[in-house]
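Chapter summary example.
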Amino acid sequence: MTDQTRIKVRYSSVDRHSETREFDTIEPAREYAQYWLGRHPEIGRGYAISGDGIGKIEVTGTSLATLFPEAV
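The structure predicted for these 72 residues follows.
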């Protein structure tokens, strides 16, 4: 698998914590994203935000709907 097909999930928060993780498959990417935002975040245009507004997820290599199927 090349870097172009990897799933990259970036988490950032209002306290300026930020980290990016890369995954080969959707399952661990979904688990990581849902760990930070829960299963039902608010979905925006190109990002998802936790219900309390503290955390944000951005993703490349897949869609937010794939990471948060229950929120869409």
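To summarize the output: Strands lie at 7-13, 18-23, 42-43, 48-49, 55-60.
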